[in-house]
């Protein structure tokens, strides 16, 4: 995401921005550990969705669909909170 | 209506007539009465203002910032240590371009602790991006408080209107009040471009702004200051046309044929006018220049005024602790750099902590300036006037 930077005459006065601009920051860039979700083990308890600080657990019709790697920072909270008997999410080293 | 009012009462009356949407304040001597009286107007139902008694000046101005960002017309009042505690938020209000108006009563900063007048408090906030207007008397304080709301809103910068602590804040004078209904009519509604509470157009305010955009936003703020003098002049003229009292950017008194002059701010302007009249009775061609609009600094109007004379005494009621003299002195030396014709200038730091400045002392300054004019020499460029032991 590279946008042309504007000059001072072109930007709104007083540091006013549109809402929801955090969508433009793809914080997935920051990740050094990556959560891997195992669809077969998942019971769709949604604990990971509740705990994820970046709303990066993708949900559809009350079921986990996967992880939004565009915004997932790799904090590992989902893997930590996934119930021990289920362990549907594991963290692996991000390789680039 | 002609009434007797102290400076604080006059500013409170102005606030009552303005009827701001929000006032958040914390009391401090000698500005306490401004919001104390205003609080009674709120209690008596004379205004519809949401009054927020905050737990500190830092919180008071923070509440003002929030309310102003939400589109409200917002005012507060403080002095000295209170303004110092607001310091962090002053820059935020200016950076967010919020037209908050502070009724500021000038008082010396600690330490040593002192409740009386000097200009160290307002001048320490000089570089915060606020408009700063120094008033000479109660009438001017009242009129300027009303004008400042309009100036701030049109310029989109916050403004502080100052009176001199106790000298004006507690001194009772005859003033003319404007009819209650005419003030809100003249001011109109605040026009808000972006409203924090507009749920149909959600916005982000006060966000993190790093290497990529901070400079651009600050450049906008600088431009607002660069371009605002004509707006200030327009508001002052409009006020004069409507209510009959006209105010200048730089107040010049008996300057047409003056050979020497004093430049001062605040209530000393009034004292110096009497001294000018006494000197004139003796046939001495002296004049007074009073800096009314201090920020933005009125470069051209000030240069026109100060280059009229051969010798100029610049009276600063605060020091910069920089070995460079007072604030006004530094500003004037700076604008004189490019001037073809320069007066001889001498800086008088005076009146710190409320030390009185008398008509006779100002006459003595004029005598010294006349001597400088005659000899063509400034004996000492910065002097501390009225301090013992010099």
Explain the overall architecture.
By secondary structure, chain A is α+β, with helices and mostly antiparallel strands. Helix content of chain A is 10%, strand content 23%. Chain A has two helices and five strands; from the N terminus they run ββαββαβ. Chain A is elongated. The two termini of chain A are 18 Å apart. Chain B contains 13 helices and 16 strands. Chain B has helices spanning 7-18, 32-43, 57-69, 80-95, 120-124, 138-155, 182-187, 214-227, 229-243, 268-281, 299-306, 327-336, 359-375; strands at 2-5, 22-25, 50-53, 74-78, 101-106, 131-134, 159-164, 173-176, 203-205, 250-253, 260-264, 286-291, 293-295, 311-316, 344-350, 382-385. In chain B, α2 links the parallel β2 and β3. In chain B, α10 (268-281) packs across α13 (359-375). Classes of the chains: A alpha+beta (96), B alpha/beta (390).
From the structure above, extract its key features.
heterodimer, A: 96 residues, alpha+beta, two-stranded antiparallel sheet, 2 helices, elongated, B: 390 residues, alpha/beta, seven-stranded mixed beta sheet, six-stranded mixed beta sheet, 13 helices, 16 strands, globular
The class by helix and strand makeup of chain A works out as alpha+beta
List the secondary-structure elements of chain A in sequence, H or E: EEHEEHE
Distance between the termini of chain B: 48 Å
User: How big a fraction of the residues of chain A is strand?
Assistant: 15-25%
Content-based structural category of chain B: alpha/beta
Low-pLDDT ranges of chain A: none
Task: Please give the most extensive interface between any two protein chains, plus how many residues each contributes.
Answer: A-B, 15 and 23 residues
Gyration radius of chain B, rounded? 21 Å
Biggest sheet architecture of chain B: 7 strands, mixed
List unreliable stretches of 5+ residues of chain B: none
Major sheet details of chain A: 2 strands, antiparallel
Shape of chain B: globular
State the share of residues found in helices of chain B, binned by percent: 40-55%
Q: What is Rg of chain A? A: 17 Å
| Helical stretch tally of chain B | 13
Quaternary structure annotation = heterodimer
Strand order of the largest sheet of chain A: 2-5
Portion in beta strands of chain B: 15-25%
Mean pLDDT of chain B: 97
> How much helicity do the residues of chain A have?
10-25%
């Amino acid at each position: 995401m590279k946008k042309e930077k504007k000059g001072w005459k072109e930007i709104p006065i007083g540091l006013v921005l549109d809402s929801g601009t955090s969508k433009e920051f793809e914080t997935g860039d920051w990740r050094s550990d990556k959560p891997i979700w195992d669809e077969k083990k998942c019971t769709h308890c949604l604990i990971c969705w509740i705990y994820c600080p970046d709303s990066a657990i993708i949900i559809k019709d009350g079921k986990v669909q996967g992880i939004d790697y565009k915004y997932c920072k790799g904090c590992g909270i989902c893997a930590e909170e996934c119930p021990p008997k289920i362990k549907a999410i594991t963290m692996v080293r991000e390789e680039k | 209506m002609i009434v007797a009012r102290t400076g604080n009462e006059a500013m409170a009356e102005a606030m009552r007539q303005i009827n701001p949407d929000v006032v958040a304040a914390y009391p401090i001597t000698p500005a306490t009465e401004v919001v104390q009286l205003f609080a009674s107007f709120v209690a008596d139902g004379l205004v519809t203002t949401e009054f927020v008694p905050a737990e500190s000046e830092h919180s008071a101005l923070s509440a003002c910032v929030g309310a102003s960002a939400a589109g409200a017309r917002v005012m507060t009042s403080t002095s000295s240590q209170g303004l110092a505690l607001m310091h962090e938020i002053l820059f935020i209000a200016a950076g967010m371009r919020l037209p908050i108006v502070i009724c500021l009563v000038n008082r010396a900063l600690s330490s040593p602790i002192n409740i009386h007048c000097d200009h160290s408090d307002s001048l320490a906030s000089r570089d915060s991006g606020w408009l700063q207007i120094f008033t000479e008397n109660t009438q001017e304080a009242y009129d300027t408080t009303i004008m400042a709301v309009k100036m701030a809103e049109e310029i989109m910068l916050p403004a502080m209107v100052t009176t001199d602590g106790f000298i004006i804040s507690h001194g009772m004078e005859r003033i003319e009040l404007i009819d209650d209904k005419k003030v809100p009519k003249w001011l109109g509604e605040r026009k808000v471009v972006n409203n924090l509470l507009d749920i149909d157009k959600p916005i982000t305010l006060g966000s993190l702004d790093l290497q990529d955009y901070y400079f651009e936003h600050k450049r906008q703020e600088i431009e607002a200051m660069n371009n605002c003098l004509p707006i200030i002049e327009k508001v002052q003229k409009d006020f004069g046309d409507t209510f009959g009292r006209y105010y200048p950017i730089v107040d010049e008194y008996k300057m047409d044929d003056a050979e020497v002059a004093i430049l001062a701010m605040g209530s000393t302007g009034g004292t110096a006018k009497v001294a000018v009249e006494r000197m004139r009775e003796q046939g001495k061609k002296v004049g007074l220049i009073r800096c009314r609009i201090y920020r933005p600094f009125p470069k051209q109007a000030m240069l026109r005024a100060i280059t009229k004379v051969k010798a100029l005494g610049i009276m600063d009621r605060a020091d910069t602790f920089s070995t460079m003299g007072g604030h006004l002195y530094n500003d004037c030396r700076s604008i004189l750099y490019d001037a073809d014709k320069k007066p001889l200038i001498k800086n008088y730091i005076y009146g710190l902590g409320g030390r009185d400045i008398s008509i006779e002392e100002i006459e003595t300054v004029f005598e010294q300036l006349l001597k400088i004019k005659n000899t063509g020499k400034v004996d000492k460029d910065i002097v501390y006037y009225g301090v013992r032991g010099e």
